[in-house]
Amino acid sequence: MLKVAKFGGSSMADARQFQKVKAIIEADKSRRVIVVSAAGKRFSDDHKLTDLLYLCYAHKKYGVSCDSVFGMIADRYRGICAELGLGLDIEAELCALREEIDSGISQDKLVSRGEYFSARLMADYLGYDFLDSELWLRFNFDGSIDRAQSYELLERLAGGRRVVIPGFYGAMPDGSIRVLTRGGSDVTGALCAAALDADVYENWTDVSGILMADPRIVDNPDTIERITYNELRELSYMGAQVLHEGTVFPVREKNIPLNIRNTNKPEHPGTLIMESFSDELFGERFITGIAGRRNFSIVNIAKTGMSSEVGSLRKILEVFEKHNICVEYTPSGIDSVSVVVSADKAKQALFSVVGEIQKAISPDSVQITEGISVIAAVGRRMAFKPGSSGRIFAALGANGINIRMISQGPEELNIIVGVNDADFEKTVQVLYDSFVK
Ligand code: ASP
Predict the structure, then answer these.
(1) By alpha-carbon position, which residue is closest to atom 8 of ligand 1?
(2) Can you give the pTM of this predicted structure?
(3) CA 161 to ligand 1 center in whole angstroms
(4) Does residue 282 carry a pLDDT above 60?
(5) Is 20 exposed, middle or buried (0-12, 13-18, 19+ CB in 10 A)?
(6) Is there an atom of ligand 1 within 6 Å of 270 CB?
(7) Number of structural domains the chain divides into
(8) 309: domain range?
(9) Which atom of ligand 1 is nearest to the CA of 244?
């Protein structure tokens, strides 16, 4: 049994968090491959190490002394080292980095040092080997990850060992360091899990998994216990912030379960993400999660006889394509079709779009409705529960929410409603209260 465990910035923030991480790892001997982020915030107006490293580079670049920023960085790691009584010669490491900064370090190399120090210290603390990501995570020249080579190298270097691996960076074909996009340690962990065919990829953070609704809207929402990759994709697309977007692909491809856990509440099982669950229970909630986005526009095009006219939908959609506007949904009636687009992206071009649609299909009318929010109730069990959509619409109606648009994908994984922006929060709350509470 092999578990790859990735610990995020908040789990690496100080010596106390290091102690929690160690206790978690020691509680399960199969946690043999550990991936770490740079130290994150210890309190709300603290700084993330990675941000300080970017700032340090900016100071250097514009010829401003970086002494004080470098001092803040060095003190964070000195503190952890001293409090945990580690044997690592942190002063020598910091001194070498300072010299490299003065002689012209690259930005990517400098900002990657947050993860590098975290991993060095954690390896020392756990008694695991440090395995540098520059030795295995390989980028192609175009910046994409060379997965075949990276997997092969990691298997060779980490196979059967207990290692701590720094997240967020790897090496270009010429050996220079390159970082992933922000939050990229999630991706490093997923690559490790895939390369080593782990039984599970644990992503340890400071929340007990994915919440069923946005906590800024719903007070203390429940955690999602189990969610499929498809449902997760729906929720993330609708604005739920969960993991770095590159995380899912490597583990999903190998059918490795992904478990989001809380370092501060290790007894909580967190959220388990899998391709499917074979042991579904009846009588469970039919909604897995609720998420939504504001500020959409609906372009409603009506024309008598439209449904029997060949090519009218194509002509309408071509106009949006020409203006590079992504079409989100197209609910339709017999003589009308609505095209739902994100207002931010369409704002500039919407009047031209209307003019061109008029030219293309000579409709009876074209109307634009602005200020629409789109909310999705996502749930794999909906497909098996007759009446799910009816119950959702009834609950919204009973609470005086006017539904402006309805859409459901053929796989019945979600029900999407469009409401006025002013009803956005109330809609999320009503859905939660009616179907989750
Ligand atoms: N330290 C990096 C960041 O702050 C990467 C990570 O934590 O995942 O973006």
Answers:
(1) 183
(2) 0.88
(3) 25
(4) no
(5) middle
(6) no
(7) 2
(8) 289-435
(9) 8
